[in-house]
Amino acid sequence: MLFLTVATSAGSRTEERKLPCGLLDGFTEWDYSVCLPDSYDKEKDRTYPVLYLLHGGGCPHTQWEDNGHLSALVDELVASGEMEEMIIVCPEANKHRMSWVNDEVWPYEDFFFKEFIPHIENTFRVRADKYSRYIGGFSMGGGGAVVYGLHHPEMFRAVYDMTGYLRRQPLDFLKSDPLGEWRQQAVERNNPIRTVMEGSKNDIDRWKTVSWFIDCGENDFTFDANKDFVSALKEKGIVCDWKTGEGNHNWDYWQKALRRALKVVGGAPISAAWNVRRAEYPCVTKDHRVVFRMKAPDARHLVVDLGRRYEMSKSADGYWTCITDPQSEGFHYYFLIADGLRVADPNSETFFGCSQMASGIEIPYSEDIDKFEMKDVPHGDVHRIRYYSDVERAWRRMYVYTPAGYEENDNRYPVLYLQHGGGEDERGWSHQGLCDIILDNLIAEKKAVPMIIVMADGNTKDFTAELLQCVRPVAEKRFRIKAGRENRALAGLSMGGIQTLSTVVSHPDDFAYVGVFSSGWFRTSQSFMANSSGEPYYKILAELPDYYNKQFRQLWFSMGGKEDIAYENCKAMLGRMDGIGIRYTYYEYPGGHTWPVWRESLWKFAQLLFK
Q: Cβ atoms within 10 A of the Cβ of 236, count?
């Protein structure tokens, strides 16, 4: 079959196509266009979500490309990370009776669902499921999209109505049209405002499975009807997104609405969880890339440092933008480098990490991973405690988590002393690590024993002395902590892991549970840390392996896979322990030397304690 192709320099292309037609009387084939993404011919096994765009009355389907500049707009939004690649289909409905809805002599809606969609799904690599299928349109097409969403809610994830013609209104151009009255009656028979208001409970429940977007200019003659439709949805408890602003019933408005629609249905990035109030950027895309945009007209050079460095580009209006590679799930530090100066992003909350205040980005976890999410369960508290350290001869802080119910009873609880890594401090586990959320969820699910967690500042000249002579006595005095080593655990990540190992080997009678995350004694001695190679401790372990195996109910190690910077150190250390005969448990979770790995480690380790 011959077809016409309109391609952009970026690679997406719009093709004019025809399909066999059997339901529309007098026609054996029917026109449509399809906008295929740049990667379509390069990635032969890849499938795509699909968006159906319905045109307005008196307009051909080609207006999406001719007036809306569809393929160029798609290329722009994909390149900027504001939408993912998808297949966009523009069917024709202007021929003959100019209607998207059914009539006994013109069953266009039947044709659309029984012939057109099956043809598209058999011809192109679209994902043939509700959650990958979207529909939208302008004017008559906006009304058609709304009607289709109401009649077939099982078919579409979202409906985007751009100034939809939803109910009968006086239209001069239809007065001279022999079929004008027929078209008006067809519209009114399918009036979506009335449909929603008269809908049954079952109808309403089905409509709630669709995301509704209504976009209409304030000067548009369809404004009141669209506003009434929004009111009808809200009255029935159906969530919708109502967008409006200066604009009329023309392509000046539809062009802007089309851009908004593509960003919504094409997976527009969501504002990052740690953004400060009202900050739209940075945003996270569906494929976990991060989009940065900020205004700095006087800056000469801006770079984002997130795993690696990304050069930002400056527009004429002073905005700087860039998009990163896909990032792993969970929390990551990042910085801006502004004209050579490393600074935190003013759009993000800041966290003490990498030995300075850094920005943080949270990459959403998969929908089936909710263990790090705030849930409707009983919540504990995190206390900030100030104390005087005789070791450091200075006032210091610790953070202490107490489980839900602590204030309502007189019970005593086992305790986990939990240490941060190098370049961080006592805030790390409660801020970046979400330790309170992790424990709240585990305790509510009865996967962990209710416990107290003490998080102290490990930046000290003698960690073991600070912990045993200062931190532990203060914690035991201020909180109802059970006595006995069987009720005591010590764990830490990275630097905190080495501190943990050194402490428990030199004081085996103090802790029964030991957790070491992304850590291990160094293979060679390091000048910044005494006994960093662990040689004195290996010697002690080798003298009494059976004793230490008995003392440690859990000696638990975790790593972030081979990409973890501590991987080789840990591997060498465990080899030494194997030779000595020390028993341990090892767990590996891919992700490198990062907070997602350490959150996972705490989630695993906490379930093993005090049982």
A: 15
Residues 31, 173, single domain; the answer is yes
- Does the residue 372 lie in any domain? no
Quote the Cα angle for 445-385-449, to 5°.
20
Q: Which residue has the tokens 């002599």?
A: 105
Say whether both 254 and 318 belong to one domain. no
Query: How far apart are alpha carbons 331 and 432 in whole angstroms?
Result: 7
Residue 464 placed within a domain? yes
Closest by Cα among 255, 602, 234, 189 to 436: 602
Cα separations (Å) of 148 from 98, 141, 156? 16, 10, 9
Domain boundary (226, 248, 265) is at: 265
- Closest-CA residue to 10 (of 78, 81, 66): 78
Using DSSP's 3-state secondary structure scheme, residue 536 falls into helix
Q: Domain tally for the chain?
A: 3
pLDDT at 268: 59
Neighbours of 355 (CB within 10 A): 11
56 shares its domain with 203? yes
Q: What is the pLDDT of residue 1?
A: 43
pLDDT digits (tens, 9 = 90+) for 455-488: 999 999 999 999 999 999 999 999 999 999 999 9
Q: Which residue reads 């500042």 in tokens?
A: 457
Domain boundary among 219, 247, 265: 265
* Residue of 192, 207, 337, 359 whose CA lies nearest to 273: 359
Cα 276 vs. chain centroid, distance in angstroms? 17
- d(CA 433, CA 455) in angstroms, rounded, equals 11
Q: Element (H or E) spanning 555, and its range?
A: strand 554-559
What's the pLDDT tens digit per position in 563-601? 999 999 999 999 999 999 999 999 999 999 999 999 999
Which strand (E) or helix (H) includes residue 284?
Answer: strand 283-284
**What phi and psi, each to the nearest 5 degrees, are found at residue 152?**
-135, 60
CA–CA gap between residue 39 and residue 123 (Å, rounded): 17
Q: Which residue has the higher pLDDT, 531 or 308?
A: 308
Which tens digit of pLDDT belongs to each residue from 308-320?
999 998 887 788 8
**Domain boundaries, position 498:** 381-606
- For the record, the structure tokens of 118 come out as 């099956």
Residues 67, 39: one domain?
yes
pTM: 0.62
Cα angle vertex 126, ends 207, 144, to 5°?
Answer: 40
Residue 416 and residue 484 in one domain: yes
